[in-house]
Here is the input.
Amino acid sequence: MPGPFDTPDPVKQTPPALPPGQEPSAIRKFLLSRGSSALADRGFRWLMIGCALSIFAIVALIATELVMRSQLTIAKFGLKFFFGTAWDPVNGDFGALPFIYGTLVSSAVALVIAVPLAVGVSIFITEMCPKFLRGPLSFLTELLAAIPSVVYGLWAIFVLVPLLREHVNPVLMKLFGWSGLFVEPNFGIGMLAAGVILSIMILPVISSLTREVMTSVPHSQREAVLALGATRWEMIRMGVLRNARIGIVGSIILGLGRALGETMAVTMVIGNRPDIVKNLLAPGYSMASVIANEFSEASDDMYLSALIEIGLALFIVTIIVNALARLLVWAVTRGAPARVN
Amino acid sequence: MTNSFRVSKANHLRRRLADHAASALAVAATIIVVAPLVAIFVYLLYKGASSLNLDFFTKIPKGPGETGGGMANAIWGSAILLGIGSLLGVPIGIAAGIFLAEYGRGSKLANIVRFTADVLNGVPSIVMGISVYSLIVLPQKHFSAFAGGVALGIMMIPTITRTTEEMLLMVPHAIREAALGLGVPNWRSVLSITLRTASPGVITGCMLAFARVAGETAPLLFTALGNQFWSSSLNEPIAALPLQIYTYAISPYDDWHRLAWAGALVLILLIMVSVSLVRYVTTRGVLKGAN
Here is the structure.
């Protein structure tokens, strides 16, 4: 490989003027003989800026495209689109409430299951487990994130759903049937199955960030609490969790953002029926899965526009949720002073 | 005196119990988290390995209900889609990362770019699918491998940008100053000194992005669409491994379920190999030659 000095730059530029009556020095002569790379430098810089700006352009393009293509339903239904319960493509009547409900409920179920587990795992990995287990365990939880959504869905259809139907749901119906959340019909597929598979999928998101936040709590906090005679759990509760709580909330919101937009696995097990029912065992429908299922069969413009508006809503909600989460995590991991109260 | 001593002893017992209970719960949580992972892998290996055969890699799919056939076209299609995606995503991602770390440090423009990269990272994959559908498929009036590749490429960009930026920021300033002090042009110092030093980390980011989009199905549903036949044309619908798994998983045929498991195993192995490679490279030091 040629060194940087081997080939003189072909582009020779006129040297800047010297004060009159002064001879150029030897170094200056040498440097001038090599030409200047100012042109190449400037070009490279603009190329990099262009690529960076293209990210901005892509997001803007996505947003405008979604808004433009959903004009039909925005104009016809306005805000009522999000409160209507009818979904009748044949008669051109569209209301997205059943899908919003399904997305919210399945994500809520996922959070209820995933949050305690994720916090438990993070506590174990950062505060308790022997050093030799730390690496492999965090690697294992990260592997969960590497499994594609469609494989989760495949596993859910053939393993999780039968498991829920045969063993878990009967117990839930017996114990909590009075609440109205777990009653017949017991198909296996439904909101609960979607929530469970979602919880497995968002666990690595929540736990890896929670771990990061917990390790960023200064050691002096732990030592101070321990020096006061606290047990290990008290140290974790007062020294670590209390300082990390904002960051943990941030990581939970980030997990929520992931759950809201998750498509394939949910589509495969949620049951795909646009009903609003309290029963978690009944089939439902989510915003992402209605797009996945019906987009390719959307025959007329109004139908397509309705589906794209659902996509637009999903886009806006995930932007807000992600921005909120980033803000919270950032506030904790960078610079925010640790507090003890 | 004795009384307060007793109280503190009861208190001590309660605190120790709470401590043990918390430890037990944390261990239980860890076991519950690792369990589904192990369950998925064991089941996938068991189901997938028993269905894998040479036909899977050499034949194209048979019609509905017929037994036999394979996913050769889907593997080829995934390779093409990921190739297009990488060609688009890797250069743009790395260049944007270079801008953030080398030129835009602390500037307003850099903050905007960083924020939009995070936004792009959070865009649900299905929304990416319909966006690319309306950007490319609708104007062209046909589904195409090109559209699918573009969707995957866009999804790769934010991950690559952020890891490239982080890795470049870790390169010591002294190295840049040494290069510039020797009279190396700035662009050359960025490419062959800074980026080169950070290259293991940057490659890690690219592999992670690759592994992430390799399993994506939702963005391909309305762009690449899927294809039952062999196709290499960028202007036609093309098959992809995740798409094929999805179609087969929700089908009513047992033999298609078998093929779906085999496909899932192949897909997972592909992803695991790249992620483990990444792990191997990163644990051996992110920076080459620094320190």
